[in-house]
């Protein structure tokens, strides 16, 4: 093809766009690389706020020196403005730096984010109707001889309540909580406020047969005088007890036994009358003063602590036979030669061994004093097990392997033990009761279990 001189001259006069396009592409690529570097730097700056858990190993003593550095972690999701700071616990799914910068995930929950969001919804929406017997005034209580059975305990922190403290504190906290409604039509659940512990201590009732008869008559009255029970055959009603007699209290009334929710410390899915998908296990707590400072791990010089009666437990008898004379393990039949609480403070692991029931207050005591619980009690539905990952802060041993207990505990590395100790510190708030409930305490954790059981089909009124 022939090209004229005029065409050649015009081509030389037209500017080429290629160099400019290449320059723009290079600028754009540079900007993207700079943004990426800023994002990476920001991520690593944020990780500096993560809590660290450090310890130094003294090679001559082979002892661990333990220091916790608390630094604020950024929240992983916002809490609503109506939520208190006590509710907004830091997300536990974080890593800890241990020794030579080895990261370990140490959250004691199955899924903190899902639980915390549903917990917020529970506090906003959940409504419980309490039958009026729990609100009697003084003049009414004088005319009704059994009214104290239904009223909140006047001194729930009395040390004499012992194993039945949780039963009374639930009622006290419920009546002061924001979950109460005076309008039964908006209630999700209905509370039957009789106290098994007070019935057991009332000489007019006392026996198991009399308690069962009392509860049957009261529930029959509720069925007769109100429409709420008949709307669900009692499946949206619940009652609370820690005394083992409570299991028999519902035995004479089919709907109460099979439909109503029992909230109980005796949460054994091997026992009759307890149905794990229907009923609720909650912690057996003693009224103990707040432990201001926990003994750090490196000051706990005993491997194991246990003391208790052995007469009603073959497993406890075997435990004493194995390690009753072991100088590294404080294992006693009956009371120890030092204050009971001191054993929890100076030991790394504290044994919960089945007695007459699968449950005892030793689990909550161990958590209270910062001692890792070792649970040797088959068929025990542990409190809040659908929320808490117990394997992250406790050791669970089958009763048939009790002879391997010491070997298993000695095989736990210092790193794992420290991680379990920190997780234990996080869950302590779930095993505390307050007259006016707050945060993620025992009342709200128990209420959350009830919240999960609220979705039942009711008949029309």
Principal-axes shape call:
globular
Q: Catalogue the unreliable spans.
A: 1-19, 40-88, 93-104
Mean pLDDT over the full residue set: 80
Largest sheet descriptor: 5 strands, parallel
Structure classification? alpha/beta
Let me know the number of strands. Answer: 14
Q: DSSP helix count? A: 16
Distance between the termini: 97 Å
**What oligomeric state best describes the polypeptide chains here?**
single chain
Order of H and E elements: HHEEEEHEHHEHHHEHHEEEHEHEHEEHHH
Record the strand order, biggest sheet: 5-6-7-8-9
**In percent, how helical is the residue content?**
25-40%
Rg value:
30 Å
**Percent in strands:** 5-15%
Give a brief description.
With 461 residues, the protein is of the alpha/beta class. It is built from 16 helices and 14 strands. It is globular, with a radius of gyration of 30 Å.
Would you mind describing this structure in some detail?
It is a single chain. The chain is of the alpha/beta class and 461 residues long. It has helices at 5-13, 18-47, 112-125, 138-143, 165-175, 196-200, 208-225, 228-232, 246-249, 254-258, 314-323, 340-345, 362-369, 405-410, 414-427, 442-451, and strands at residues 52-58, 63-69, 95-98, 102-105, 128-130, 189-191, 237-241, 261-264, 280-281, 302-308, 329-333, 347-353, 372-376, 395-396. The chain has a five-stranded parallel beta sheet with strand order 5-6-7-8-9. Strand 10, helix 11 and strand 11 form a beta-alpha-beta unit. The longest helix is centred in the N-terminal third of the chain and has 30 residues, at 18-47. The chain is globular, with a radius of gyration of 30 Å. The termini are far apart.
